[in-house]
Amino acid sequence: MSKSKKMAIIGISFSAITAFFQIILTIIKIIRLNIVLKESDASSITKVPQVITILSIIIWLLLFVVYVNAIIFSILAAIKSNNQTYMIITLVGIFTLIVLAIIGLGLIIKENKDKCKSTCLLEQTDKQPNLTTKTNEFIDQPIVDANEQKEISDDNPANL
């Protein structure tokens, strides 16, 4: 597996984690908004539970760390990619629309998977011994069948 494929997988994983944190943060914002709207007077806005505020700050920090890692790994995967089109789609997607970045990273993974299939098959065929020739790979000498050896020994005048 190539480095660009590994980095693309990590980038997509971090993007998914970022989306999960954003969903949780949205739910927390809705809860905070409901608490504020249920209170009628303006002085009760300060009574919003501090636990929800602290939790949202912690999730914002985690979201920031994970998203920065997703951006870094996505940029590295795009730079290491062999295909210029996939690199451009990924880089434009990182800074404009995250869906494009995910599509670009998916294409990088697919490209390297197909590339690995063809190169891995070539490597396997290079490593396999050639079955048409009768040679011993350990001592680089031809293998002699028992029948051929008997014929050779019958031709030897010393054996007569």
Automatic annotation (TrEMBL):
<feature type="transmembrane region" description="Helical">
    <location>
        <begin position="86"/>
        <end position="109"/>
    </location>
</feature>
<protein>
    <submittedName>
        <fullName>Uncharacterized protein</fullName>
    </submittedName>
</protein>
<feature type="transmembrane region" description="Helical">
    <location>
        <begin position="51"/>
        <end position="79"/>
    </location>
</feature>
<keyword id="KW-0472">Membrane</keyword>
<keyword id="KW-1133">Transmembrane helix</keyword>
<feature type="transmembrane region" description="Helical">
    <location>
        <begin position="7"/>
        <end position="31"/>
    </location>
</feature>
<keyword id="KW-0812">Transmembrane</keyword>
